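Section 5.1 Outputs to date
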Amino acid sequence: MRFNICIDLHNAYFKTQPEESRKYAEQMLRIAQKSGNKLFEYKANLALARCERKKRDYKKVIPYVKRSIALSKELKDNDLTFEAYYSLAKDYLDGEYFTSLIPALEEVMQYAVKNNDELQVAKVNYVYGFYYATIDLDTKALPYLEKALKVFQEKKEHLLGNDCKLQYTVSALKALPPDPGLLRNLLESVSYYAERNSKVKSAYCRALIGMYYYLYGDYGQSITNYTYARNLYKEHKNQVQYALTGLDLANALLLKDDLNAVDAIIKESEEIFRDNDYTQGNIILYITRSKYYAFLKEKEKALDLLKKVKKLIAEREYNIYTKDYYRTLALVYYKSNDNQEKRPALFAYYQYLFRKFYTEKNIILRDLLITHQDYPEMDSGLPYLINTIKDPGYFEKLHAFFENSSSKDTGIPDSLLLRSSLVSDVDSSNLFYRELEAIDAVANKKLIQAELAKQESEKRLMESRLWFAIIITVIIAVLTILLIIYLRVVQKNKKRAERDKATIESLQVQLNHLIENNLKSISSFIDKAITSSEPGEAVESLKNRVDIIHQFHETYKKQGLKNKIMTGYDVDLQKHIENTCSYLKNFYNYDDGFLKINVDAPVTVGYNVGINLVLLISELVQNSCKYAFNDDDVDRGNIIRIAVTVDDKHMLTLHYQDNGAGKPLEGERGLGSELIEDIVRTIQAKTSEYNDNGYHFFLERKLRHNEYKKTEP
């Protein structure tokens, strides 16, 4: 029990108070070691690794994960061993321990095959693909990512599937010919993560859209999307990604000559990387600042930074930045009009591409096209080189030349360039625009489609308003019929019970009160929904609340309506609250693995108090389901606790709490908050609320001694 409580507290503090979260992870480890429970120790080590992973301190992460692997082997649980090895492989990838990564992937693949688990194999393929994409071998990455994506989609692993689709899109952008379908994939991912309130993933998608437009030469759209992504990262307090996206933004702003904005972004990113001791970020920062100095024609400052880049690449084996180093070096000499040094720098850049990506011809071509797009006058011979690469025979000759030549001063011999076959419109204006004419046509088509979609949306809005009016009319008609039926029941019972006038009068008063309360509740729902700015959502919300009232009465009537009204305290709160929570979990498609709801309400109360408490709790649970939790919290242990007690002084107390993101206690109120206030006024109760590791809500109402009955818990 103590161990499980520590897990809950570790998860609860993880996002907002990481140091407190770590304390509970350490306590988990002490409990596990003291009890000798190896499964507990396995979980505790993974929790400690998780804490260090958040700080990107992989030197501390990896020993914890390796200890978990050893424990899983002692437990002889292949599934646990796979998960631990899988975590280790991802940590090697994120921490850039590439020499250790491949052996770890081979080991974890053996366990996936041994377990005969198709999903586990797909996870390993996903990491393989991510690794090859990281080291710029995107053509090699695509088959792994494609195989993994197919399994994720078949198994309906939506979160993994969307993450894999994003990485596939990134690799395809860099390795395949221009394809507007990639932008469609990114826009679909933006919608997916926005619906799940995942701001980090939404920001990542926006940054990729920025990269898409940058690669295709639309720097304005690129700047817009990079800025949007950067703001999302800032809102989520993800400083490293905020800084990295800022550098992407700075590269786009450079090509718009907005040097003041570039300088401000670089300074801000520099401070963040210094505070986080992020070497890889510093390399990207030095390259970006070198470009900035190149545009200012401050050659010596740029060259000093590039020396640092070259040193860090050699020391840390960050070879993925070698290409950017050579290209930036050529840019510095070009901007400073140093043609003597520019030629060998360009030669080194081309030579690196042909040696590194000989089997990845598309990557060479794409990289050269982008270079010509960004800096069309840097090398007047680049369009000829691009045109020559497209010829298979000449491509092989070029590769042989770069593989064997060490003469950087002479440049590429004319005999290896197809100058005569160059079409007239391929000059310094940018060859890449010609290949994007089809993309522009598609973009114009998208604008037309967007306008048609807007018109269709307005049409659906009108239809939803019409349906809204029809549903309200139907509800009023149904309530009128119910009222007539109830009145007839009352009259019939009155004739049968003439000898007990007091009983009949009490029954009629209580029954009319029941109808009045239901009409007031539904009328309040309708009033709030009418003022909603989203009629479609309002109709769905209204239907949901009417269904909850219907479900309440289905449970209520099973023991006999007359008996319940006469006894006065036959609303079993435990049963009614559990039924309502079960209905809402099904409505929001949450299983016990994602959200647990604990109900402790061993009290039976009268109808008026009972139905209002159930309706109030349903609003609180809906608010938690909508706003407290998101898909990033799958391992957090999301929980809602509901407790109702009555003390010796007949004071009923409701305590509702969740361990979610908390509720804004100020600002604009939604429909649910307004309904809660109406219910509180109806039953004349006192309430309070606050945030502390989640949202807390208290309600107190004084009862008479004959208004309730305690039941066995």
